[in-house]
Backbone:
């Protein structure tokens, strides 16, 4: 299983991913699900991936090959992020179809493309196995792939377009920790990439192992404050609100 989240803000982008590709009693393996594309100086592109590992690896290899061979259509000669999303969608569909024809396994995968092309706004695109895509919005400034349900509430509560890059990164790590708490198939190392808009240079990139002091501090502080908040909730027996019949029946 996988969990990846991308956040699109006025200040730039934050992308976070786990690295667990298989989990069992005696079989845990890891593989980075975040790929920072090698691009020309006028653009910055990152791909997050979830789903069949063979498919996602093949997508990345095709992207690299098209750049290396100078294909007429590659990530370095497209003028819009939407064009890059279309291109990745076509590669994804073709590879899924090829793998499905071989039979024996589910080849589906989902991608998140994040980045900026000079003269355009930074943005995020979620690319489905069918090749179509959606973008983030003012109402929902983030996109998730993989095991998304456990980490969604904290994103909904705290993220807005005006959120700072650092706060968004911390929020994403809390979202990741909540997911790891509820699903053992999502796990470290955890990668966080912070891109400031219009920079087009190497972004801040962090990688946290399971015992990293900062990751542990985030987990402990979040758990501590959640516990404090829970214990400060108004008690039913001292509430001034009269319980209705349904509550009395409980």
Residues:
């Amino acid at each position: 299983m996988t969990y990846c989240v991308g956040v699109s803000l006025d200040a730039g982008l934050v992308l976070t991913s786990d690295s667990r590709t298989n989990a069992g009693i005696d079989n845990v393996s890891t593989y980075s699900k975040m790929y920072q594309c090698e691009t020309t100086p006028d653009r910055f592109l990152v791909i997050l991936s979830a789903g069949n590992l063979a498919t996602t690896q093949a997508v990345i290899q095709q992207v690299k090959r098209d750049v290396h061979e100078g294909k007429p259509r590659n990530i370095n000669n497209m003028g819009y992020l939407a064009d890059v999303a279309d291109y990745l969608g076509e590669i994804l569909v073709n590879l899924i179809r090829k793998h499905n024809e071989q039979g024996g396994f589910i080849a589906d995968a989902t991608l998140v493309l994040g980045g900026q092309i000079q003269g355009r706004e930074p943005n995020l695109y979620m690319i489905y196995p069918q090749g179509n895509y959606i973008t983030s919005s003012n109402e929902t400034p983030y996109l998730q792939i993989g095991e998304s349900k456990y980490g969604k509430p904290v994103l909904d509560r705290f993220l807005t377009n005006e959120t700072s890059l650092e706060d968004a990164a911390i929020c994403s790590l809390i979202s990741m920790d909540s997911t790891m708490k509820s699903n053992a198939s999502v796990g470290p190392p955890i990668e966080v990439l912070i891109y400031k808009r219009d920079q087009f240079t190497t972004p801040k990139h962090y990688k946290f192992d399971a015992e990293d002091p900062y990751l542990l501090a985030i987990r402990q502080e979040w758990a501590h404050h959640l516990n404090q908040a829970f214990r400060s909730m108004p008690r039913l027996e001292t509430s001034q609100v009269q319980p209705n019949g349904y509550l009395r029946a409980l």
Summary: The chain has six helices and twelve strands. The longest helix spans residues 81-102. The domain at 3-233 is CATH 3.60.20.10 (Glutamine Phosphoribosylpyrophosphate, subunit 1, domain 1).
